[in-house]
Amino acid sequence: MSHSIDPTQVPETTTSSNEVNPSPRKRRYSVAFKLRLIEEADRCINEPGELAALLRREGIYFSTLGDFRKQKAKGLLDSKRTKALPSTPKERTDPKVVAELAASEREVRRLKRELERARALLDLQKKVSELLGLSWEPTD
């Protein structure tokens, strides 16, 4: 007599693959939790990976910790506030402002490249003048 398992039998506890899992609920954190986590994270400077271990243990992402720190910097985690903070709608950005910002960023990059070239030319001029024995000092 053989004691093998029949592969056609499916245990009753198995769920079918076409079931839909309910979407996860958004986690809400208490002010006390946020302040405690920020304090613990600030103390994680001794060992490499210490902060990552804390975040894994608490089950949050680094960006969530950053959000907590921003809330604290804005004063939203004061001890006077005990209720949950209302969510604020995201600001709508004006396309003109976005275009101006992009243009300004391009201009800054261009000017930085120009500055680097000017510095390189000055360094070259100094080296050439040293080789030729010329002085950069102003003479009176």
Note the topology.
Elements: H1 31-42, H2 50-58, H3 62-73, H4 95-132
Helix pairs in contact: 1-3
Measured distance between first and last alpha carbons: 114 Å
Shape: elongated
Helix content: 40-55%
Poorly predicted segments? none
Task: Summarize the structure in words.
Helix content is 51%, strand content 0%. By secondary structure, it is mostly helical. The chain has two domains: 55 residues, no CATH class; 48 residues. It is elongated, with a radius of gyration of 31 Å. It starts with 30 loop residues before the first helix and ends in an 8-residue tail after the last helix.
Task: Give the key terms.
140 residues; mainly alpha; 2 domains
Quick structural summary:
The chain is mainly α. The chain folds into two domains: 28-82, no CATH class; 93-140. It has four helices and no strands.
